[in-house]
Description:
Elements: H1 7-17, E1 25-28, H2 38-53, E2 57-62, H3 72-85, E3 91-94, H4 99-111, E4 115-118, H5 122-127, H6 146-157, E5 167-170, E6 185-189, E7 203-205, H7 207-217, E8 223-226, H8 233-241, E9 251-254, E10 258-259, H9 266-275, H10 289-295, H11 299-309, E11 317-318, H12 320-334, E12 337-338, E13 340-341, E14 344-349, E15 358-363, E16 373-378, E17 381-385, E18 405-408, E19 413-421, E20 427-434, E21 452-453, E22 455-457, E23 462-469, E24 492-499, H13 501-505, E25 510-513, E26 517-521, E27 532-537
Parallel strand pairs: 1-2, 2-3, 8-9, 10-11, 12-25, 14-20, 18-21, 23-27
Antiparallel strand pairs: 4-5, 5-6, 6-7, 13-24, 14-17, 15-16, 17-22, 18-19, 19-20, 23-24, 25-26, 26-27
Helix pairs in contact: 2-11, 7-8, 11-12
The structure holds adenosine-5'-triphosphate (ATP) and magnesium ion (MG).
Amino acid sequence: MEDLRDFIRDRVRRDLADGVVEGVVTRFPPEPNGYLTIGHAKSICLNFGIAEEFGGNTYLRFDDTNPLKESQEFVDAIRRNIDWLGFDWGTVTFASDYFDDLYRFAEELIDNGLAYVDSQSAQDVAATRGSFTEPGRESPYRNRPIDENRELFRRMRAGEFADGEHVLRARIDMGAANLVMRDPVLYRIRHATHHRTGDDWCIYPMYDFTHCLCDALEGVTHSLCTLEFENNRELYDWVLDNTGVEFHPPQIEFSRLNLEYTVMSTRFFRMLVERGGVAGWDDPRLPTLSGLRRRGYTPEMIRDFCSRIGVTKQENRVEMELLEFCARNALEDAAPRGMAVLDPLPVTITNYPSDEDEVLEAPWHQKRPELGTRRITFGRSLAIERDDFMESPPRRYRRLSPGEMVRLRHGFIIRCDEVIRDVDGEAVELRCAYFPESKSGSDTSGLRPKGVVHWVSRSSGVSADVRLYDRLFSVAAPSPDEMESQLNPESLVARKALVEPALVEAEASRFQFERLGYFYKDPVEHSAATPVFNRIVTLRDSYRP
Ligand code: ATP
Ligand code: MG
């Protein structure tokens, strides 16, 4: 693969060349409050990718400072996701590993008059922060003596106060232009059991205090985060400048991945999962890595996608077509072909001489003979797609209609002689003649059928659940307050399909159903007895990246 180039990699190259750093250390710092999305994959590919490319190390560091939202389930899922993407984490750490260190750093700030215990209510703290146009107001507790701050902070830790009674704040500048710098909260009281530290702590450090110090303690050389933390960089630097850490990593921001027709919100997905709006975190409609995996996406596709979107500071929304392109691009050559009929219309071959089916050989992949062949059967009782028949077709219709001929893919040419209808007049069976000398590969009939359609033998075909997944939202850019009403009601259409048995028997799990799309045997529910296929993506569209 050619070298990736972007402003962050350029910076890393420069820092190495100039001796600013001796080696590269990055980190990926997820909060274990949900499953990872393809947005996180962008950050994973960047952090792990850079370490791989420059011979460095990456910490997988769980940012577990909010016990109310975090759990071991999410920690385990995140590890599985990263593993699946194919990245090796050098070291797994937790922000909670550093709780003792962080507490000492907080004491250091207090001792230097740079932090104080504020006893205002959370509402008052918020109300006195000011705005872009107005400075904040200083807390009446801002000038507490150092000894009193130290003692109160100790008692906060000892569990002597209820949630919300006090917070520890940095003593910076209530008039700072950057609101983040107006005496930010560093610690709050939370009487909650933590999934790793249990009840050892009842005060928990805030993100802005924790993150920079963990980076520094781990010797992270390039701390990469998304643009919404740009304003927090000043605080990141302030904390490191004012505590006795030796190492001061630079924070470098890049734009988040946003994708059309979906969102990247852990909170919204959590709500959907909890309310049963989707089947779980691995619902194939979600852009979670678990969902994409279950849908049939491979790590290669996701990594290809991440390298195509690149890394910049431009905020944008990537077209869903690019992700779909990456799937098709990988499956085009790799996926064996087969036939499935999603909405079967029975076809009876009236002149077929026997009740027994005959076996035909069909290639698994027209352009890849080395994949071998599969056996399909042809006989009296078949099915075609209801869509592939029309009673009174428009001109140039290329499928089946009364009196017309089509070729059955890998089979014979048939002609529709009679339509059997139900009481409502709807076609329920087609009676057709076939031309024995028109067999695919050895056609001597000289006939010119209108088109080619896929089909399955009803006597050997297997009934399968086929799930047609589509976009999660009906609009390209869901708006934050209307997300629920903008969900696509057709994001899942379930069908009882008829599929050729070779698809179920084959070891492969991803196939092209000819003319329909790429499908994946559902890794949880599929079995030979009850086949379940998920649609990964439809067949081509005109998109070119
Ligand atoms: P959410 O609010 O959905 O949980 P987050 O940004 O809070 O998202 P974290 O678990 O804190 O999620 O993120 C871990 C890392 O992944 C961070 O460095 C974050 O910047 C990065 N990340 C998260 N979402 C995206 C995204 N959509 N594009 C790029 N990077 C992302
Ligand atoms: Mg988060």
